Amino acid sequence: MTTGLDARLVVRRGDFVLDAALCAQPGETIAILGPNGSGKTTALLALAGLVALDAGHIRVGAETWAQIGGLEDNTGTALRPRERFAPERSAPERFAREASGRHTGLVLADHLLFPHLSALRNVAFGPLARGATKAAAHERARHELAALGVLDLADRRPHELSHGQAQRVALARALATDPAILLLDEPLAALDPATRGEVRVELRRRLAAYPGVTLMVTHDPLDALTLADRLVFVDGGRVGQVGTPHEVVTRPRDRYVAQVVGLNVYAGQAVPGGVAIASGTISTQPHEYAGPVWAAFAPRAVALYLARPEGSPRNCWELQVVAVEVLGQTARVRLTREVSSPGSSPADVVAEVTIAAVIELGLRAGGTVWACVKASEVSVYPA
User: Fold this and answer.
1) Is the separation of the CB atoms in 27 and 212 below 8 Å?
2) What's the CA dihedral at 17, 22, 28, 34 to 10 degrees?
3) What does the pLDDT read at residue 225?
């Protein structure tokens, strides 16, 4: 299989309009991220044919799955899901068969396995629906279950499986038909942390051997950074930043992306020795940029003090604590500029400190601290 994806998805739902271009090479995994209501799942369902396009196109390899005119002239053609079902059909059967009409595999957070079938027969359902013999379908099902480490569960029904095991069976079922596109909608979201790590490892291994295109919607940056070749950020129905995990982590280009990858980032104008932002200037190492730029620094680069330290770095701001979030042996401290303070610091800063520092400084919401960042810790790059 050597099919890539070229799509422009335009879907109108009331006042909300999704207008997103998505392209992927064969064997590539794309993670789609964005806040709730940004259009991520709508994009996946449009690719599967479960949501109709109002405009745009979907091309997979040499095939055109949909070609629709503009919002005011929505003439065109669309390859419909292979079968339509009566309302009494089960949700698993509708999703499994409708998605297969465009040669897609669809895995949702709610795995939607057939409750009356064993794991083996759930996975064999797709090949059988596509005309394979029972022997061939069962052999393919055993192969997929083995690849995901759950062949020993082949005879169990869904209610006898843990959620993590059921998700692996659902993934095996999606892959058993050799789909041109694999669509994963929050496939690990409902798993507990330990199970999530195990399934993530199995999923990464299996996707590495899958020659088609994978598109995965997720809110979890770890899932995106460890499973995807490229990240696509969607907000308000539009694609914002696109890039490899390394490109996005090192150079986020909006506040949402920065929050996902865990950086403080600010838009501004390059000035000698720094970046002028709306509320002041962030000092940096000498740089060669001019015009619009971004300034970014990691939360761990922020040092906190109860009083302004002597000989402090050029970036030192008095800020108010908004919240303290404990993360294992460290804590994230969310800070903001007080309304009464002069406009000489970023409006919001996130610091990462040890639990010992939280106790020593007595950090709590409403308190005031000095946040300092060395100029050498600030990255500058073009907007």
Assistant:
1) yes
2) -30
3) 87
Report which of 107, 123, 295 is spatially closest to residue 215, judged by C-alpha positions: 107
**Token pair of 363, please?**
């950090």
Which helix (H) or strand (E) segment holds residue 74: the answer is none
CA-CA distance, 236 to 7, in Å (whole number)?
18
Q: Which of 204, 199, 217 has the alpha carbon at shortest distance from 33? A: 217
E strand or H helix at 297, and its extent?
Answer: strand 292-297
Pull the structure tokens for residue 345.
Answer: 């610091």
- Give the ranges where the chain is alpha helix by DSSP (H): 40-48, 91-100, 119-129, 134-147, 163-175, 193-208, 221-227, 245-250, 255-261, 355-361
State residue 76's pLDDT score: 55
Can you spell out the DSSP letters for 213-233? EEEEE-S-HHHHHHH-SEEEE
Average pLDDT per 10 consecutive residues for the chain, totaling 383 residues? 85 94 95 92 92 93 84 54 37 45 77 91 92 94 91 95 89 90 87 78 87 92 89 93 90 83 89 88 90 92 92 86 90 83 74 94 93 92 86
Do 274 and 283 form a contact (C-beta atoms < 8 A)?
A: yes
Would you state the pLDDT for residue 192?
77
Q: How many Cβ atoms sit within 10 Å of the Cβ of residue 355?
A: 14
Place of tokens 């057939």: 114
For the chain, list the domains and their CATH numbers.
Answer: 5-255 (3.40.50.300), 262-382 (2.40.50.100)
Rg of the chain, C-alpha, whole Å: 25
Instruction: Find all residues with CB under 8 Å of 26, minimum gap 6, and list them.
Output: 1, 2, 3, 4, 211, 212, 213
User: 131 φ, ψ to 5°?
Assistant: 100, 5
Residues in Cβ contact with 39 at an 8 Å cutoff, skipping those fewer than 6 apart:
11, 16, 18, 20, 234, 236, 237
Residue 339: predicted pLDDT: 56
Of the candidates 381, 351, 354, the residue with the CA atom closest to the CA atom of residue 367:
351
Residues with Cβ < 8 Å from 242, sequence gap 6 or more? Answer: 230, 231, 232, 233
Q: What is the pLDDT of residue 200?
A: 86
- 315 three-class SS: strand
Measure the CA–CA gap between 184 and 176, rounded to whole angstroms. 15
